[in-house]
Here is the input.
Amino acid sequence: MHEINVAVHKLQLILQAWSELGHTNRNTPEYQTLINKIRVLSVEYKALVDAPRKPGSSNKSLLGRNKCEPGLGKSSLNVES
Here is the structure.
């Protein structure tokens, strides 16, 4: 359950950073800082969500998807990094 709380907190931080980004001038250092923060938090969130649960439980991520399902490694936004 702790992993879910951490993932939810990461997602809230991502949403907050996106909100701040919407009010930030693109030509400022703060804008790039927010972009980097969103990228880092997103990677951390994805790792939490995609991680298998503790040993002894099924091989499912926090979202309950089986790690063997096709397309799991693709971004839902089809964004290349």
Q: What stands out?
A: The CA atoms of residues 25 and 48 lie 31 Å apart. Helices lie at 2-22, 29-50. Confidence is low (pLDDT under 50) at residues 65-81.
